[in-house]
Amino acid sequence: MYRVFEALDELVTITEEARGLPMTASCVVPRGDVLELLDDIRDALPNEVDDAQDVLDKRDEILGNARHEAEQSTSKANAEAERAVQDASTEAERLVSEARARAEQLVSDAQAEADQLRARGRAEYDEMVGRAHSEAERMTAAGQDSYTRSVEDGRMEQARLVSQTEVVHAANAEATRIVDAAHVEASRQRDECDSYVDDKLAEFEDLLTQTLRTVGNGRTNLRGTVNGLPSSSMFPYDYQS
After folding, report:
1. Where are the domains of the chain?
2. φ, ψ for residue 239 (rounded to 5)?
3. Where is this region: Disordered (predicted)?
4. pTM for this prediction
5. Could you tell me which residues are beta bridge partners of residue 28?
């Protein structure tokens, strides 16, 4: 390897001492000496340099093959990515469709349940109001009959007492008392009737409040289920609340 550097130094010396051509940057060198030095350099180069040259010669081929394989891998990866995206999009559309169908079914079920609760509440309300009216009419009729009987008894008693001259004043007072008592009794029976009707209507008001609370809970649960998209949620209606 030392001979290589020595020959290169001699080439540099020959070139520097060569006679130059007028009006140019060229020079005249002894061809034989230069060729001899170049042969010495070629002979002195180690075999590894030749092997390195072979590697350099094959570099482009290796790089071309690597580039081709990279392009194929990239194309294959892009195709697989597109296929994965398409599959994911199809699956997402299917899930959204199923969720939408489930939500529509839940809304339909909730609407049917609400309609059923309203119908049942209306029927119970009508029945209770009917019973309350019947009871009120019965108690009113009974009070009216009692009032009529009391008034009639008072009038008969008044007429009897009036027919007796010695007790006319006492009879008038008693008749007035009886009539007043009849009025008081009739008023008391009316108050009892009104209280009974008010109690029944209060009971029905509590029933309607419970029914509306149940429907409100169902609607709240429905809104929460549709936003979250659960897989198999049902409406936990609490009819005892």
Report:
1. 1-18+28-45, 116-227
2. -75, -5
3. 67-91
4. 0.29
5. 19
